């Protein structure tokens, strides 16, 4: 469990996490409204070297951010009802070549990859502090997480 006291800490955590990422990775972000999923994705984008700011994909559902070390596919699945709809987004990119980060994707997008990292963000009422739990799901995620400098 990692404690993130401020939005800047969440951004920085995403930036460091990006160092572990490889093409084909799938990250499933779980957590309530305002948990900081987009903030984390913005940090990941920065860590991948995506130029400019990763904006929230809420109104576009999905956005491909290229120009960094690996293309970042940032999806907000809040309004998606099924995996088929994710496929239907017809993203002009091969997920095998990209890092895919999906907000609200738990229970929906797991089948997009054989392995995935589940990131659970929780918050307390009236507090900026966020707690993050990284759950390796298959592949070599457990080993890769062991290499992540957490502080
Ligand atoms: N420690 C923290 N980490 C991240 N965000 C924080 C933190 N403390 C406060 N915040 C605030 O919480 C909000 C997080 O917003 P963000 O859009 O990243 O959440 P989200 O999980 O993507 O929400 P949504 O479910 O609507 O997509 C921002 O307004 C941010 O400033
Ligand atoms: Mg969001």
Give a quick rundown of the structure.
This protein is α/β, with parallel strands linked by helices. The protein is 23% helix and 25% strand.
Secondary structure topology:
Blueprint: E1 2-4, H1 7-17, E2 26-30, H2 37-48, E3 62-65, E4 72-76, H3 83-88, E5 99-103, E6 116-123, E7 130-137, H4 141-146
Bound molecules: adenosine-5'-triphosphate and magnesium ion (MG).
Adenosine-5'-triphosphate binds next to α1 and α2.
Protein described:
The chain has 151 residues and is of the alpha/beta class. It is built from four helices and seven strands. Helix 1 (7-17) packs across helix 2. It has a seven-stranded mixed β-sheet. The model has no long low-confidence stretch (mean pLDDT 90). The structure holds adenosine-5'-triphosphate and magnesium ion (MG). Residues 4-7, 9-10, 31, 33-39, 56, 58, 103, 128, 130 line the site of adenosine-5'-triphosphate (ATP).
Largest sheet: 7 strands, mixed
Which structural class matches the secondary elements?
alpha/beta
C-alpha geometry: globular
Q: Roughly what percent helix?
A: 10-25%
Task: Please mark out the parts with pLDDT under 50 across 5 or more consecutive residues, or reply none.
Answer: none
Oligomer: single chain
- Order of helix and strand elements from N to C terminus: EHEHEEHEEEH
Termini separation (Å)? 11 Å
Mean pLDDT: 90
What would you report as the Rg, rounded to the nearest angstrom? 14 Å
Strand order, biggest sheet?
1-7-6-2-5-4-3
What percent strand? 25-35%
